[in-house]
Design brief:
The chain is 42% helix and 22% strand. With 556 residues, it is of the alpha+beta class.
């Protein structure tokens, strides 16, 4: 395709782009995308409101403490007020001093009055312009914008907030510059789509819809999830702490229902509530908590992923989802380092799975925000198991992955692995018996004998679940029995290969083979192939090194 033809098609795509909120054509708005950027832009006036709300959330806990201190005659409320007032003043100062714009191919942000700060990011290195929009954002017609490169775990710039026109102007500039970075043979891919569009809008033009999620599947995933499971620990910790403070005695839990659960006096007299005391009440509480957590999981999935759409435009994958808070995120295909398919036990029973990815410089689990949660940790939160192979082939076409028909040669762990894990299970059982006998006499010791058969069975299953294979394009590693995970690392993304041995590994003549990429770990599965035969691990280490060294990134 000639350069003039490509530029014409690029302009046509811009005109046909639909906005992420209203889905209205943006042709008239995008005419300003090529306007003069010499004049710096300012944030929308509502930025002050959203910054103030952010500060309220940040200081809500100190404010509560300060209010409590004030009721006790302390100065905490005044200190909290001064700190909060200073934060609001800093918010106003940031709004009136912050400017952003494009200068000589650089995205520049300037802010500060006494202490001035200038941040410059080359447009060609911007890979994501992601959006977060809650209900209040929709009222004002704005969104929070995160400008990201592959350089670190945090966004290069967070603009809270910009209008529809401002967002599309910025996207149009990034689109125009990044389009020149795409190799000629990559300018059109798939069904004639356009490349390297750093946007997350739902397109009315030539985007290709890859996947949507029905509400039914979201509810099923919520039922299978453990969102909010931490509350179980809190409830039981509260209960047992109270029992130990009072002194543990046989039958001390009988008053649990009366002490910790609201009165049942409102029930009719003909209903016998005496059975609610003691362990019967605790059992009922556990059942109620179980169903409550399932309900919370369903609500969380529907709220976070309602209206999920995964689209491909050129070499970008665009994701949008959310019920109250809409999130739009971009995942450039060239930045995908690692793909992991998760199949927890309950999801497998329902014929479902999920896909997670890791990107270059992507945020890790600890630094997640709304956009990284969607675009990395929950890339495809749920899909039918028979759709996995097709979607993987779209993420990396060279894989041509068909798990059920794959001719890949799989390698298992050392034959001694099962024996080693069983020995560890027996040792753990002995320790559990001793601890149980010391803490909960006279029947605490029975925990060990009950656990050992289960641990031996799990050891057998785990050792047989681990396997890996090598193809021309990369490595596939599968592990886990209850939560089965299959991950894919590509030779053109591998940063290093390692081999490791602990003293116990040397005793069993085993080794661990490690494969590292430039990703940060939100997929929660690393290719650390443990318990390999020592000689075999050394051989595979050398072959992995050669395969990774001879391949280069496709865009290099």
């Amino acid at each position: 395709m000639q350069a003039s033809e490509f530029e014409g098609e690029l302009q046509e795509q811009l005109v046909n782009t639909a906005h992420y909120v209203s889905n209205e054509p943006l042709g008239p708005l995008l005419e300003s995308a090529s306007s003069n950027w010499d004049e710096p832009r300012r944030l929308h006036y509502s930025s002050v409101i959203f910054e103030a709300i952010s500060k309220v959330r940040e200081y809500i806990f100190p404010a509560v403490i300060g209010l409590f201190s004030a009721t006790q005659g302390g100065w905490g409320i005044w200190i909290a007020g001064i700190v909060f007032g200073g934060s609001v003043l800093a918010t106003l100062l940031r709004y009136f001093t912050l400017r952003y714009g494009i200068q000589d191919g650089e995205f520049v942000i300037k802010e500060g009055l006494l202490f001035r700060r200038t941040r410059s990011v080359p447009i060609r290195k911007i890979q994501n312009v992601d959006l977060v929009q809650n209900v209040l954002h929709r009222v004002f017609g704005v969104a929070e914008v995160k400008v990201e490169t592959a350089s670190g775990t945090e966004a290069e710039a967070t603009l809270r907030v910009l209008t529809k026109l401002q967002i599309e102007e910025l996207r149009a500039v990034v689109l125009d510059v990044n389009a020149d970075e795409v190799a000629p043979d990559e300018r059109l891919s798939g069904e004639g789509t356009l490349p390297a569009v750093s946007s997350a809008t739902s397109l009315s033009g030539r985007s290709r819809l890859l996947h949507t999620i029905s509400t039914k599947n979201l509810i099923q995933a919520g039922v299978c999830s453990n969102r909010g499971a931490v509350f179980i620990g809190i409830v039981f910790g509260f209960f047992f702490q109270g029992q130990f403070v009072e002194g543990w005695q046989p039958g001390a839990g009988r008053h649990f229902w009366r002490k910790y659960i609201p009165s049942t006096s409102w029930l009719p007299d003909w209903i016998d509530t005496s059975w609610l005391s003691g362990w019967a009440g605790i059992t009922l509480l556990c059942v109620v908590l179980f169903f409550l957590l399932r309900l919370l999981g369903m609500i969380w999935y529907v709220h976070r992923f309602y209206g999920y759409r995964l689209e491909q435009v050129g070499n970008d994958f665009w994701i949008s989802c959310g019920l109250l808070t809409r999130v739009s995120a971009t995942v450039p295909r060239n930045r995908i380092q690692f793909i992991s398919v998760h199949r927890p036990l309950l999801l497998r029973w329902m014929g479902l799975a999920s896909i997670r990815i890791e990107t270059a410089g992507g945020a890790g689990v600890e630094s997640e925000n709304a956009s990284t949660t969607v675009s990395r940790r929950w890339f495809v939160p749920v899909l039918m198991d028979d759709e996995v192979d097709e979607l993987l082939s779209k993420l990396r076409p060279e894989m041509n992955w068909l798990e059920s028909k794959s001719e890949m040669v799989w390698h298992g762990v050392s034959p001694l692995t099962e024996k080693r894990l069983q020995r560890k299970a027996i040792i753990f059982g002995v320790i559990a018996t001793a601890v149980g006998l010391a803490v909960m006499r006279p029947w605490g010791w029975i925990a060990g004998p009950l656990l050992v058969p289960i641990l031996l069975w799990l050891a057998c299953k785990k050792s047989r679940a681990k396997r890996f294979g090598r193809a021309d394009w990369g490595v596939v590693y599968q592990s886990g029995f209850l939560i089965r995970k299959m991950s894919f690392a590509f030779f053109d993304r591998i940063q290093g290969v390692g081999i490791q041995q602990s003293p116990f590994d040397r005793r069993w003549k085993m080794a661990t083979l490690q494969v590292d990429t430039a990703a940060a770990g939100p997929a929660e599965h690393t290719i650390d192939i443990a318990c390999l035969d020592q000689e075999f691990a050394i051989q595979q280490f050398g072959e992995f090194q050669r395969d990774a060294a001879k391949q280069r990134p496709s865009w290099a």
